Amino acid sequence: MDQEATRTPRARGAVTSRPSVGTLALGALVAGLALGAIPSLHETARTLEPVGTLWVNALRMTVIPLIVSLLIVGVVSAASSKDVGTLGLKAFGLFLLLLAVAGAFTAIIAPFAFRFLPVDPVASATLRAGAHLQPTSADVSFTGWALSLIPANPVKAVADGAMLPILVFTLAFAFALAKLEPNVKQAPLKVFESISQAMLVIVKWVLALAPVGVFALAFALGSKLGSDTAAKALGYYVGLVIVLHVVTGAGVYAFAVLGGGVPLSRFARAVFPAQVVAFTTRSSLAALPAMVEGGRDQLKLPADITGFVIPFAVSAFKLTSPIYWTLGAMVVGRIYGIELAPTQLLTIALASILLNAATPGIPSGGLLIQAPLYAQVGLPVEALGILIAIDTIPDMFKTTLNVTADMGVAVVLGRRSGRAG
What we know:
Helix content is 78%, strand content 0%. By secondary structure, it is mainly α.
């Protein structure tokens, strides 16, 4: 018998009526901004600000071990899989192509779009003076940036939170580990699997306290920037995220039609059920059955496409990353009055591509793992707490774009193979 049907009405009501952590965090954001704008409460805001900093620090302490362990497990597992062959390499190549295009598109549009977001320089200076900023390297030239990619001391790179050097070393270590004999690599692989699972448990504990941390951060933000200015800036960011995701989604349709040779109406019918599930649940994994069914029944894709490429794309490909990572960094820089150099934006874009497959499958996981990156490029890490709080609505569009892109890659590979129906 269905377990849901056996629950008492009281039990069912208790489950369905409890607001989610995301809803509570959004409410905490609104309340914090409103109360922070009251002059008589500014002293209270300064008292509560360390609470928000503690919450952000709790998130930051999990990120590097989580990313390193997830990347190592993912690379070694993929390299050991018999399914990862020519088809897997072709899929990965398309992932990189689309990510690069999305990143370039955002990098071109975003600086122009943020010119229309006015922020009071005095308020930004006040906000920046109270922010926890890590000094950045004086060498922001492309040559200096390129030389910093390979760490002379990986341990120091971890201590400094230098994300790109950490990623380079981690990937090199993971590929080397994958080359070892199965009986040799099994033990360290189990260790990294355990670390990743333990870190995810800690992250869930910390995210459960998001309403408290977000309220404290929003209270401080409202007291320094003003609730109206903060709300306008965040609203502008949300609107821009939605617009760029819709435009990019239209580009994915064109990619599927032109690259896969499938009629627009047919692709739209095939992907629509998965888009509905993705939009309402904010979960690409929840939309996977609908994607497989649409690919098999509507698009007549071969079994290796529906059975391997689509699940592979769901787990390792998130087209949204270079879009909202770049927009988030730019809106934070705009609010705090911090001008990001081209190499800093390039660091963010490249990290969004390299960390695509290591994004944890938890709400706002892509924002969570940016904490060391923000510290590296000189942005206040505490601003990520605000972005997490407003992520509910943008995340609907992000998940929908990811699902659409997964299906686009599948139809292109299926049609190019010449084995689709």
